Fold:
Amino acid sequence: MRYLLIFLFMGLSQVSKAQEVNWISLSELEAAVKKDPKPIIVDMYTTWCGPCKMMDKNTFNNPKVAAYINKHFHAVKFNAEGNEEVTFRGQTFSNEKYDPAKSGRNATHPFAGNFAVKGRLAYPTTAYLDSDLNMLTQPIQGYLTPDRIEPILKYFGSGAYQNTEWEAFEKSMKKEW
Structure:
């Protein structure tokens, strides 16, 4: 009986374990897209950003959101104030002004400038790219709850963006989350 309870407990703990997004780095992206061409979601965050942490906890850790992202996207997480050297579309970016002694806000990584909206960066910022690494829409700045990100994920993840206007898609989409 005790072994049965242990077995059941182990099984339930595996079922209740939340699915996580399979994040990759920018340096892994181009090889991943060549192997499996699908859209890309980029989560642009900083270590000090409260809404970024909330989005990780409440949105990206939502099992339905994570499962959908893992199935339909390559997911990239990028620290917009980090010191990682990255090569993107043949151009190398490094944060020469990064100061490891600083805690909190740091210099903005030059690569993050690709995700500015009207010359302004805000965190979190979520961007969507096609498998050729072209931006599909203006980056979306701010915290997105699971119900707010669902139509966006499905619009790009399903390929609907290729032949359906956003407004028509959003009106016709049945929300499930």
Observations:
- The two ends are 38 Å apart (CA to CA).
- Confidence is low (pLDDT under 50) at residues 3-16.
- DSSP finds six helices and seven strands in the chain.
